[in-house]
Structures are given as C-alpha cells and as structure tokens.
Amino acid sequence: MERETLQGMSATINLRQRIGDLTRTALLAAQDGGALPSFEVPADVPVEQSRHAAHGDYSTPVCMGLARLLRRAPLQIAQIVAQHMPAAPSIARVDVAPPGFINFTLEPTWVASTVGAILAAGDSWGNIALGKGARVQVEFVSANPTGPITIGSARNAVIGDVLASVLTAAGYTVEREYYVNDAGSKVRNFGASIFARYGALFGVDVPFPEQGYPGAYVTDLASKARDNFGRRYLEAQDRDSAVRELGQWGIQMILETVADDLAALGVHFDTWFSERSLYDTGLFDEILAKLRAGGFVVEHDGATWFRHSDLEKDAVLIRSADVIPNPEDRPTYLASDIPYLWNKLVERKFDRAIYVWGADHHGDVPRVQAAAKALGLDVNRLVFIIYQMVTMLRGGEEIRMSKSSGEFITLRELVDEVGPDPIRFMMLTRTVDVTLDFDLDLAVEQSDRNPVYYVQYAHTRISGVLRRAMEAGWDVSSKGDLSLLTHPSELGLIRKMLAYPEVLTVAAQSLAPHHLTTYATELASAFHAFYRDCRIVSSEPDEAELTRARLVLAQAAQIVLARVLRVIGVATPDRM
RNA sequence: GCCCCAGUAGCUCAAACGGAUAGAGCGAGUGCCUUCUAAGCACAAGGUUAGAGGUUCAAUUCCUCUCUGGGGUACCA
C-alpha cells in the first residue's frame, strides 16, 4: 500500500511510479476477488501524463494490452480494474474512457500540499534512488592532448558532464574521467613539431615532420621550452628521447590549458587517465597474453590481430610489423582500448563504464564489445553514448577544422564569446541521435533570446518577487496555508514541479540528458503562467494568507528550477 | 558494397515501454507594461510525421524496401 504521509517520504514523490503501483494493486485485487481471471500481472504498469485535461492528469493503457490475453473487451477490463482501485489521498477520481484507458485525476488539495514537501526537501528534491549507489564511470571528451580543446568537443563535454550529474542525482556513485591519449605516433609527431620550432628559435634548422602540427600554439610551446630548458634538448645526445620528452612535456602543458578551458565551460574531471600507463604497468602485455591464451589473437604477415567471431570479417589490428619504426609506438589505439576496459571493469571495479563517443567512432563499438566478451566480461557493463556530429557554421558557411591543419576554433574562444550557459543549454536541446548545426553568428547575435535565458529569467523573476516581498515586510521564510492554492495556474505549476522526479528517472534510465532542457522550459513556462494569473504579493489586506501561501509556492518553484539548472550545469541568477 | 544515425510546421527541433486531439522556439500576424523584471504573456496561422508496404485494437514510434542527408569502413586517434 502506498504511504502518503508527507513526512514519511524520503524526499521525492514519483507519481507515475505511485499510480502504476496503485493500478497493479487493483489488478491483483480484481483477480483475488474473481472479477478477473488469473494471469500474470505485469511488474511495471505503464503510466503516462495525460496530454489533455479531459483525460485527467495521468493515465494507463494497460487494460488494452490485456484484452487479448483475458478475452474481454478492454473497456470492460478497465471498468473492473477501476472498481478495485484502492483509495489514495492523492487521487481525486478514477475514470474509464474508451477504448480502455484508465484516467487519474489528482486531488487538488493534495497537489497543493506537496509544495510543503518540496520546500522541506530543498536541494535534495527530485533525487531518486534508482542507482542504489552503483558505481558508474563516465569517460568523455578524451580529445587528443596534442592541441587545445576545440569547439568540436563541446557537445561531448556537455553530454558527458550532464549525464554524470543526472546519474548522481539518480543515486549512482559517479566518476568523470578523461582518457589521455599520450601514447602512439601522434605524440611522437607532436614532440617532433615542438622540437622543430624549438630548434628554429636557436637558428638550428630541424626539418618539420610530415605529419606535424603547424598550429601557432606549437610555436608558443617551443618558446616556452626555450625559456624553461634553454638549449638542453638541442644538445641532447639522443635526439629520439629528446623529442619524446619534449612531446610528453608538451602534452602536460596542453592538458593544463585543456583543464582550464573545460572548467570555463563548467566541466571538471575526477580522473585524468594516461593511456601510456596501460603499457608502463604491463597491463597491455598481460591482457594480450590473456587474449592469446583464449585463442583470440592471430598473427598474419608479421602483424598481430585481435579476432572474435562477433566481428565477422573484421579484425582489430593490435600490433603492426611495419610502418612505424619505433617498437613502443606500434600498438594501435584500438589495442589500448582493450586493457583500458579491463582496467575500468576489473581493476577499478566500476559496475558500468559509459563511453561518450562521437558518431565518427561508432564503428569501434562492436570491437570493444567483442574484446570485453573475449575477456569474459559482461558486455552490458559497457554503455556507449554515440552522439551525432556538430556542424559549425559561420556566415552560413560550414567551418572545417582539424588540429593537424592548425585551423580550428578553440572551445575557449567560444566560451569567451558566448558564455558557458548558452553553450551547455543549446547542446542539450536535442537528442544525441540528431546532428546539430551550431551557427556561431546566431549563438552570439541571438544569445539573449536563447532558451536558457527564458528559464533563467523565471528563476530571476522569483528572486525579484521575494526581494520585493521582504522589502514590503513579508516574512518570506514563513509557512502558509497551502490549501489556498487553488487557481488552475497554481495547480498547473505544482503539477509540473511534481513531474521533475519522473523526468529525472527517464533521463537517467535512457541516458538522455536532453529531457532536462525540455522540462526546464516547460517548468519556466508554467511559472510565467502563474505569475501572469496570480498576483503573488498582494496589497489587499484580506489576501495576506493567500500571499503567504503564494510566497511558499514561489520559493518551492524556485527550488525545482534551481535543481534542474544545477543538473544541467547552468547558473541560477538572482538578477538579469 | 556493407554498417550506424537522421528525415515531423517556412527554419531549428520535442513527443517517456507503441496510446486518445503530434508540441515548443525562431520567423511572419494581432493585442497586453500608472502595483511583484515585457529576457514576459495572450490570441490566431502554420502538418498526408520523406515515400510504399507490413505487424497491432492502436504506429511519428516496431519490421521490410525505396529515396535523401550525415558519419564510419582495420596501423590518425
């Protein structure tokens, strides 16, 4: 049976869940009473918010699905179930509608009373226990540390960061990780590029590598190297190791700015994981031996391949015999993904490892999954969020960027120009499955009409009202008689506030953070409607009680707005 | 060739495990500031959900095919 005493609720009311449970109880009761034949009652009864007021607040189509099984008309089943529906303080009425819906209408006084629970829960409002503390790692961005973060990583950064926040709010223990690709030939070329510029500063002609990095930041790094190290690397006996050391030093320098730039966007990592460490600790060799023992490794033309029956014709190159002369550079980047997943799931024991990858990497998913299988691990512990690419437009023209050509717009430039909030919000307004056009002119030009301001403005409006109320001598912290909240716009706002835990549940279960921006906009809209229809601080003497109640509502609404905005990671301004 | 994603209002996109009358923003239209911020609100306009089949009581949603766009396709990560 449901418990509805407000103080008994941990923090959050989940109406969808609750109505599903009620319906399930009714189904079981109808069975026990013989009104319905015996059948297996579904564990999860589907419940949705009604789209039209005529259909109540929530509805379930469950009876229509049972019609065939029970050989009864769905409407008849719905009527029987409705008759067995247990009474609940939250539900005012239960109606049956053709062809077999059961519609629930909330009890208005109960709805109004929940405002107190929201206010009491405060910052914990909406948090749900879905994760039960399971440990989840979200690995994202992980852009090459051979150059500054570009705007090409913006979507990845926001999706990963907000996903982590969503999961935290949903009761998971979450770690944010950046995988640093500090092994392989790219790093080598990067070091050689710095070395060439560095040499030039001393008038020494060092050939610039063919696959080098021509960006101006490389020259800046070379100057810094000259200031820090003088001629040390130029005079080194072993040019190869000098280049390598300079490359590693350059990566460290880059990573510092990468961390700063991401912080400017509001993104912070718990762990920066070095790809090189997979080799240095011997894990790579260990895992390779394991795969070999399992018969998943084949040698062909002097190269080493990972093969798995899942991969059809594909095989993954682990180690090449040629092309790269330096043996320590030989494993491919895909090869290091295999010990890396072992490190995540076995050594560090994450229950789930989430990868946030651009669509250009989607082809690697089956390979990593096959590797997990080959290592005897549960593939479902690896979750891949594949988001579609972002097309950057300026002046209606697509901007093509690449670090190797040295032509790109940095994330930092974008953040400095537009600010973190619009970027974060806009990157979350679409599902990860659709490509995104990001018009730089529009982002700047129309920034004050960006949807994020619409939501933030609602928050600001509430702050303004509360300020005015305090100036007028109202005790803003006081309680109010919530039963006075009866206006449709008041109840509409509260109902929207109550939907937050449901939205969070959906976002966490489907790993789809865009639901939050959609919801935030709807919540702001509900507040604006309330603001329009209901004078909050009244000067009428006989409306003092109503004013008190509405001040409580306004505060509770602000809490929910702030909760959503915090999860999205944008500011909650008190003035705009 | 094969694999992945998408195609919904003029534009950019939503639509929870398949549910009832497919929703927002922008743009264009008409109104609303002498009391809490007009970065707001109201009204009205805009749709054969790319096309064709199929499954289902019910399809924007699932399946097949076609068309269009984007991405990938083993040593750049």
Descriptive overview:
- The chain is of the alpha/beta class and 576 residues long.
- The chain folds into 4 domains: 6-106, 2-Layer Sandwich (Gyrase A, domain 2), CATH 3.30.1360.70; 114-130 and 449-568, Isoleucyl-tRNA Synthetase, Domain 1 (Orthogonal Bundle); 138-180 and 272-447, 3-Layer(aba) Sandwich (Rossmann fold); 185-253, no CATH class.
- The chain contains 20 helices and 15 strands.
- A 5-stranded parallel beta sheet has the order 7-6-5-11-12, sandwiched between helices. It has a 4-stranded antiparallel beta sheet with strand order 1-2-4-3.
- Helix 6 crosses helix 8 (239-264) and helix 13 (411-418) crosses helix 14 (420-427).
- The protein is globular, with a radius of gyration of 29 Å.
- The model is unreliable at 1-10 (pLDDT under 50).
- The structure holds one RNA strand of 77 nucleotides.
